[in-house]
């Protein structure tokens, strides 16, 4: 009698646990009964993922390691002037700069990521076909094949079918989105080194783009600084003519000297902002696609969908 009472008390105290055990057994039973359907669906997804992985062309990644230029083209001289003539310069309304200025390396990185630089880069090197219409790369003769439904290489003509306001030739906005997915710029905060990598169907094109990026960003930053130095020199010369205070004139002459140093450094340095530590090479091994990963994920997805389908079908029938 006591055992019966104890059993009833236990059943009343833990009914959910028993229900859970029954539910799990039912789930496993349903899955086991639908095992052939699960196997069939999983097999279809597995075969499909294999075919999809094999249909994807190889991609190659070329990368270069860069270091910021060690000299700041007059930054040290301007800092010394700021310490020596800071108060006087403030009275004259001249800003010599100092802490809190924009880091030239970081500015160059942001310029490389900008739409304007990317658009100029694509147009100056005529990269649009290789960026938007490449279909495959032939290793034997190092040539690329273009998608003939988008671009006719022989006629240099875009023929893709798009709806307005889009045009057959891709816009720079569309090209920018694709370009950003192929180019990666990483800045290591600890070492200060910058890595630029480009991934493309052709390993030779990937290497060429990396080299062009380094050349162009050095050229753009050099031209910016030279233009700014020339404008600053013209302004300082006009200020010299307007003052007779000896100390201010001395300060202005020193500032002109610093601007002349900036122009001189720009003229003699090819690697103006970034110095190449490890140049880009033509990659021999593919970077993608990860065919094994695609097959595994495709098979797992098929298995999960098959199990869900079997369970949903069972509970729908059970409710009816």
TrEMBL record:
Regions that span the bilayer: 36-54, 292-316
Domain Tyrosine-protein kinase G-rich: 275-314
UniProt xrefs under Pfam families: GNVR (PF13807), Wzz (PF02706)
Membrane topology per record: Multi-pass membrane protein
InterPro entries noted in UniProt: Bact_polysacc_biosynth/exp, GNVR, LPS_length_determ_N
Coiled-coil region: none
Location, primary (coarse class): membrane
Entry's localization field: Cell membrane
Polysaccharide chain length determinant N-terminal domain location: 20-124
Keywords in alphabetical order: Cell membrane, Membrane, Transmembrane, Transmembrane helix
Record protein name field: Wzz/FepE/Etk N-terminal domain-containing protein
Organism: Shewanella aestuarii
